[in-house]
Amino acid sequence: MRYEALISVIVGEVNDEKLQGFVSDAIMVDKRRFIMLAPKRSSMFRLWTLRLAFLIMLWTIAVQFRSFGDMVTPSMFNTHSLSSLPHHRIYENNGYVMVSSNGGLNQMRAGICDMVTIARYLNVTLIVPELDNTSFWKDHSQFKDIFDVDYFINSLRDEVLILKQLPPQQKHKMKTGSLSSMPPISWSNMSYYYDVILPRIKAHGVVHFTKSDARLANNGIPEEVQKFRCRVNYHALRFVPPIEQLARKIVKILKEKGPFLSLHLRYEMDMIAFSGCNEGCNKEEIDELTKMRYSYPWWKEKEIDSEKKRRDGLCPLTPEETALTLSALNIDSKIQVYIAAGDTYKSAKRMASLKEAFPNLVKKETILEPSELDPFRNHSNQMAALDYYVSIESDIFVPSYQGNMAKLVEGNRRYLGFKKTIVLDRKVLVNLIDEYKNGSISWKQFSTSVKVAHAERIGKPSTRSVVSGKPKEEDYFYTNPQECLPPVKGP
């Protein structure tokens, strides 16, 4: 009876049915073995001592075995286990917010981060944002096609409730048109959302934000709110596995061959037409670009002084200007240059000098098999997601124009430890390039001047600029999220 009681105690300590059976069977085998040997033992005390030691050993093995099992289980099977997710945040829900994002991938990305942040601090439930399907590129991808929606929802559930769709009662309001629909005022601080938006949500139950870009200010925002914007952007918004896996493959292929520079070369036809920048274009090309600009009524600026705009540093650098700049900065001519962009306008003509200066020009279309890109080819935002991922992982990132992707990649690289990003001063550069081309300065003078102008423009820690009343002229929060970075050291 004492022996059976001891077995019960030992087995009861193991909280697993299979392990309990394993231990029980081993103990019973031990019991039979020692019963047979007992007559041959001269001391019962020695027998019980051996039995107790054996039982302790079995119990220790069982515990260690279970721990080892957890340790060797592949992490992919534990990624979404309930124990690894943050606890649900319980709060008194003030209503629901629907969001229609606008713009290209990175413009929408920043807007989504702002909308999640606003929902969290207004204590409202956010419906997974819908992506813009009406922009120039006419990409019909939705959130779930680009971002891992389940990870997005679960990784933030300790802060904000996010649903894939409205509950039935609120959905009825949408059908009957009783919800409130509006674009929030651009560059607003949190008091606007507390004082103006929250009462509207409480009154209507559901509010639909028809735009999401730049709806939250860069500065004058509480630090905890700024840090939450970073959490959403750098941790919750993860690309879906097909995009991430293919992007990882591109990076792997590039890194096996050595370091690589990601060049965000904004010289696609739509970009040149929209900007009205025609440096190096002939009359036929200028006419073609102008016709395209006039064909899109939502491109508001039609008559553009290309030369003035270029002198003011408001034009993307041409491929020729980019080649001169990179060479002047002493970028190794043998480095792989990954073109993180769409098709270059008049590629054969415009890319010749860049190809001559940097022969190892590559892009995703030359690295991958056509069949690998086919699922993404007609989805510009998914193709942009591939370029975003590769640019984050590059040894050097250089944008020829400070658009939304350039801004967000720069900020992400700062967040990852101030990875080298060369932010080109186009206003200085075009002046130097013109002086070099007309013979006013030598190559040595040109190269030295370019280096001096960019000595502090390589993604080092800096204080985000503030321009009171002119948010478009100050540093963008997502370019330099300083509240989420190590503090800037003094001189």
UniProtKB/TrEMBL annotation:
Which keywords accompany this UniProt record?
Answer: Carbohydrate metabolism, Fucose metabolism, Glycoprotein, Glycosyltransferase, Membrane, Signal-anchor, Transferase, Transmembrane, Transmembrane helix
Q: Which terms does the UniProt entry file under GO BP? A: fucose metabolic process
Membrane-spanning residues: 45-65
Topology term for the membrane: Single-pass type II membrane protein
Q: Spell out the CDD domains in the cross-references.
A: O-FucT_plant
Q: Which PANTHER family match?
A: O-FUCOSYLTRANSFERASE FAMILY PROTEIN (PTHR31741:SF45), OS02G0726500 PROTEIN-RELATED (PTHR31741)
Q: What is the name attached to this protein's record?
A: O-fucosyltransferase family protein
